[in-house]
């Protein structure tokens, strides 16, 4: 799958299937994206190629976010450790390629936003058990 930032100066390519695809409603994700939730597909680092100049910032002590230096569009994040890339599906050229299967921080979901029908798991806060593939 191929995609890019809004201005096209950063390109992203993923290979294979993601570990998992989710939606997060936490305040950090909401503020970092300027949207009511964050949508992401989680890949191993060896399955992701990013070209172009990105800037990094730490939104919390656990999360590093990477955006295009030119347009500021978010491209990917790393969480806790660098062995998972949270790639933002809105960056990809193909629409509808990823379907979320779980939601985090549903207690922060906008009251007008219903639960995503494809999400078989909803967590009021973070997941209690961290696994590569969630839900199982």
From TrEMBL:
Key words, A-Z: Lyase, Metal-binding, Zinc
Highest taxon of source: Bacteria
Any Pfam family hit: GFA
GO molecular function: carbon-sulfur lyase activity; metal ion binding
Domain CENP-V/GFA: 1-103
Family according to the record: Belongs to the Gfa family.
Protein's recorded name: CENP-V/GFA domain-containing protein
Lineage, broadest ranks: Bacteria, Pseudomonadati, Pseudomonadota, Alphaproteobacteria, Hyphomicrobiales
